[in-house]
């Protein structure tokens, strides 16, 4: 099985540029739980999962990192609600398509990022656990 890779296009500088764009976008978040630090935690956790499952040579880490950076940009235009939760992936993809942020990606590459963003909301039980953890942190200062 061939590994799909962005390696030729994705340099450290390009990633830093995308990371900065995501940080600027997430400063406009309408949901304090979905800020840039959340984006960073998601990316760190995704890379840990890749490592634990020994997938480094089977998938392109860059696709995962890009999807992590932009998975919650819906909250820059939409307040948290049940409807936003249901449509969050579609909203985020629409924002990406309206911008030129990922214009350097091929259609196939963008499609992979798009699918990751569209379906990330299916992790609902984990969201509940994260909310409980975040609430504990706010009140106790613990991790």
Please summarize what this structure is.
With about 140 residues, this protein is mainly α.
For this entry, give a set of tags:
single chain, 143 residues, disordered C terminus, mainly alpha, globular
Please provide a written account of the structure.
This protein is mostly helical and 143 residues long. The chain has one domain. The chain is 62% helix and 0% strand. The chain is built from six helices and no strands. α3 crosses α5 (107-119). The chain is globular and about 40 Å long.
Percent of residues in helices: 55-70%
Radius of gyration: 15 Å
What structural class do you assign from the helix and strand content? mainly alpha
Low-confidence spans: 139-143
Shape: globular
Strand-residue proportion: under 5%
Gap between N and C termini, in Å? 40 Å
Give the SSE order as H and E letters: HHHHHH
Q: Largest sheet, if any?
A: none
The number of helical runs is 6
**Number of spatially distinct domains:** 1
Number of beta-strand segments: 0
| Oligomeric state of the chains present here | single chain
What is the overall pLDDT average? 84
């Amino acid at each position: 099985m061939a590994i799909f890779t962005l390696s030729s296009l994705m340099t450290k500088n390009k990633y830093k540029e995308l990371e900065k764009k995501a940080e600027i976008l997430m400063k406009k978040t309408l949901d304090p739980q979905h800020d840039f630090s959340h984006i960073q935690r998601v990316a760190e956790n995704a890379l840990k999962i890749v490592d634990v499952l020994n997938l480094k040579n089977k998938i392109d880490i860059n696709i995962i990192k890009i999807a992590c950076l932009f998975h919650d940009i819906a909250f820059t235009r939409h307040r948290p609600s049940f409807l936003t939760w249901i449509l969050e992936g579609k909203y985020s993809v629409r924002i990406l398509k309206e911008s030129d942020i990922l214009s350097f990606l091929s259609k196939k590459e963008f499609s992979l990022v798009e699918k990751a963003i569209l379906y990330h909301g299916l992790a609902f039980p984990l969201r509940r656990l994260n909310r409980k953890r975040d609430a504990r942190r706010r009140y106790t200062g613990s991790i």
